[in-house]
Amino acid sequence: MDLYLPAVPALQADLAVSVPLAQATVAVYLAGLAGAQLLWGELLNRMGPRRCMEVGLALLALTSLGCALAPGIELLLAMRLLQGVAAAAATVVAPTVVRATLGDADVVRGIAAISMVEAIVPAAGPVLGALMLPLIGWRGTFWLLASLALLVLPWVVRIAPRRLPGLDSSHDAGWLGLLRNRSYLRLAASHALCIGALLTFLASAPQLLLHSLGQGPAAFAVLQVLGVGSFMLGATQSGRLAARFGHARVVQWGSGAQLLACGLALGVTLAWGRPPYAVVLAYWMSFCGALAVRGPATFGDALAVPPAQMGRGTALLVLALLAAGSIGTQAVAPFMGRTDGAAPLFASVLLMLAASAALVWRYPRIRRPGAPSA
């Protein structure tokens, strides 16, 4: 999606469609990505990680080719929806395999490594996409995505296990069994609210910078770079901190740091009417650094369930965080075109962070399953 975003205006002009229809190519992809979480969570135990990735990457390549060759907006929208369904395989399989194959000493580092990649791509993707657009056009973006999917397919198939280690099919692997796990629900809800706060702020930041602070696109680029840098720095230390101080403490400390940063930003906004750009930068860097410390431990502990439930647990968690981000973004959207939109944005984010912190203030007791080597 990030590689594709700069191509949306060119697509609109080439296909002679309206702005809402062009933007719909992003919306339907996200709808497919969110809706397919439960599908892949259900298929993971039945098909195994390797087969899920074979099907997911093959479908991603085929739908990318379909987008590249689409003669009109109707087929393009259908292909983008299926692209989201295909991409959802990775969001379910990758963290599940990491949690199932790594021991407690390494799982935080493993999830942090995935998180670092996921932080780099949204920052680098639009830049790379904008640089390539004059050379290959919007259709070339999809040809590139198809090529990348086919390129990684043999490698992923080689390393992905056929079955999750320790999978016991006789265990209660249904959704109800997962929903009865209070520790999972609390940790999953806490992580979803935290990521929802991130997505809400990130999606609203361009409008905030423009209408409230009078800043141009360069200000958002700087915000992204500093946020990713802070996240990368925190992610390199998350495993070491979790091993030294325990998962509960790093999650609680990270939650507290995020609350403090957002509370200070809201206080400055209420006192001055609008926050200085430096305050927004300081808040975002603090938020991202704290997220990198608390996020992997929260995610890993939420998935400390029997292997038969891990796929569904991952799917439900990712669906929850996407939903939280979507709801938060829409809730603050009416305020983002105003000069005083910063206070509602920071207040909404603070509310989400407070709920997230409350869920882990008394950390759930984790029953950690044994994890054999990959």
Automatic annotation (TrEMBL):
Keyword Ribosomal protein annotated: no
Superkingdom assignment: Bacteria
Primary localization class, coarse: membrane
Topology with respect to the bilayer: Multi-pass membrane protein
UniProt keyword list: Cell membrane, Membrane, Transmembrane, Transmembrane helix
Bilayer-spanning residue ranges: 20-40, 52-71, 77-98, 110-136, 142-160, 184-205, 217-238, 250-271, 277-293, 314-336, 342-361
Location(s) in or outside the cell: Cell membrane
Domain Major facilitator superfamily (MFS) profile intervals: 1-367
Membrane in keyword set: yes
Protein name as catalogued: MFS transporter
Gene source species: Pelomonas caseinilytica
